[in-house]
Amino acid sequence: MNMRPSLWFPLSLILLLSGCALFEDEMERRTPQASVEGTRLAGLSFDSVDLLVDVRIDNPNAVGVQLAGLNYDLRLDGERALSGESDARSEIPARDSGTLSVPITLGFQELYDRIDGLRGKDSVDYAVDLGIDVDVPLLGVRRISASTSDTLPLPKVPRVSLGDVRVDRLGLSGARMLVDLGVENPNGFGLNLDALRYSLNVEGQDWISGMMEETARVASNDSTTLTIPVDLDFASLGSGLYRMLTENRMLDYQLQGSLTGTAGESRLGQFELDFEDLGNFRPGR
After folding, report:
1. Does residue 13 carry a pLDDT above 50?
2. Is 55 within 8 Å of 36 (Cβ atoms)?
3. Residue 25: DSSP 8-state
């Protein structure tokens, strides 16, 4: 018994659609899967943070597959902050898995300039969306994705500035000065200071330079004052120094140096920070 021609088309369509569905199911079954195993802070300073996103790739195929590149988008507080790509290639063995570490470096100043409201925060919520290209034999390059979110610390740079400059003792050959240096910590964690290198130039003359190695602690969102005794010699600095100290006028200065220490309970760890402070002061008594 012959089937009527009018039945061939719907039957063929059903077989075709079934075949397509089976093919799609097979492609889905053979497509590797990606998942984020975790994120790590590989480096953290007052200038930048190095983030590592560990991505696991599972290969269900009986043959190995090749990673053929990736890209990522990073958002901070919901706003797109950074994107990047890599052509890194590696092989995932048959019916096995492999881990890919995606490095992302963020410069804080660039982020502050780009995204309103970040400056002054102690931390920010972030999200990373990854797109990974995998070359699967017979199927070609397949696009898989993974995402993760967490919180990123935003350490703020401590400030070192010149405080009071007082004449402790004034004689015919020189003067004993007491110079206060203020260290301000705007962070939500304490700072343990180990050493402070400094040089102070006043009215174009190099008054002092040296290093303080006494340990000091600056609590979170607090400040401390370090006092440096200084002996100034009129013979080496000139007679103009005496007039500077006795004429009761404002003096221009430049303070430079570096600060080393440990960032308390923060993941920042040890740090070394250069500083500069410009302004003027009136010598006190």
Report:
1. no
2. yes
3. H
Sequence ranges of the domains in the chain: 32-153, 159-281
The 10s digit of each residue's pLDDT in 67-103 is: 999 999 999 999 999 999 988 788 999 999 999 899 9
Give the pLDDT band (50/70/90) at residue 12: low
Q: Are 282 and 250 in contact (CB under 8 A)?
A: yes
Residue type, 141: V
Q: State the average pLDDT over residues 163-191.
A: 92
User: Same topology for domains 32-153 and 159-281, yes or no?
Assistant: yes
3-class SS letters over 69-99: EEEEEEEECCEEEEEEEEEEEEEECCCEEEE
Pick the more confident residue, 89 or 34.
34
Nearest to 155 by CA among 132, 187, 124: 187
85-113: burial string, b at 16+ Cβ within 10 Å, e else: eeeeeeebeeeeebebebebebebeebee
Query: Phi then psi for 276, rounded to 5 degrees?
Result: -150, 140
In the block, which residue shows the tokens 């930048």? 48
Question: Would you identify the CATH topology of the domain 32-153?
Answer: Immunoglobulin-like (2.60.40)
CATH 2.60.40.1820 fits 159-281, yes or no: yes
